[in-house]
Amino acid sequence: MTKLFKFFLYLSLASPLLVNKYLFFPFITGKVFFFRIAVELALLSFAILFLWQNGYWTKIKAKVKHPIVIAVFIFASVFVLTSLTAVNSQAAFWSNFERAEGGWQMIHYFLFFFLITVAFESLGEWLMLIRFQTVVSFLVSLYGLAQFLGIKNSFIISGGQPSGTLGNASYLAINIIFSLFFLGWLVYKERWGSLKFLWMFMGIFQILMLFIAKNRSTFFALAIGLIVVIALLALELHKKHKSRLSKKTLFLCYIATVSIITIISATSIAIAFII
Description:
Shape: globular
Number of strands: 0
Distance between the termini: 50 Å
Mean pLDDT: 84
Structural class: mainly alpha
Largest sheet: none
Helix content: over 70%
Radius of gyration: 22 Å
Strand content: under 5%
Number of helices: 11
């Protein structure tokens, strides 16, 4: 049952790949149905484990009390509460399949978040999950490349820019940003050299797809993220090594950090204007 529980969670991550031209909203309806059903089946598997395995509550008790889980629960609860007290509470809670962003969908998002925190514990399990997610993201972008190339006109495109299987070029770009973060983490954590090269290749491909998607705000977001990471790394290195470095060396490090941040900022602004 534990394997089945995890299987349904993996399955829910595959929902972005679904596109059906015979549905009224090809990029949304199939994904929403698939995701909700997969999460509900995962919840059913979890309930069976909870009822039949002795001590299962003890196993998840610490996770239920984790500050991040509590914060996400509060956010989801406020979202659902506001949807129930909206001017049109029925539309706010149930939404529709053009957007599918109501309170009912938020409940499924929270359930998915909570269930993956329960199901996956070790670093190896999380690595497998993130590998699967990055492959899904790569396939989403690969669909976008096929749209861009217009292969046999068999790929549905929404709007002027390639949107992958998500139906919106902005969504594709945001998906790539998340994927790049995970790919960077995989390159850092992966032990197998061949897999490192695979993740690097996928990362380069995703960056190229960012240019094809032509979403300016994404480049600004990527630049801000890189600047924050560089600043945090520089601060951490400063704390660890400041006692062993001369003032001249520290000054050069400060100059290098500021220069890198300036280059990243200027490059992101230039790219935003060019595309």
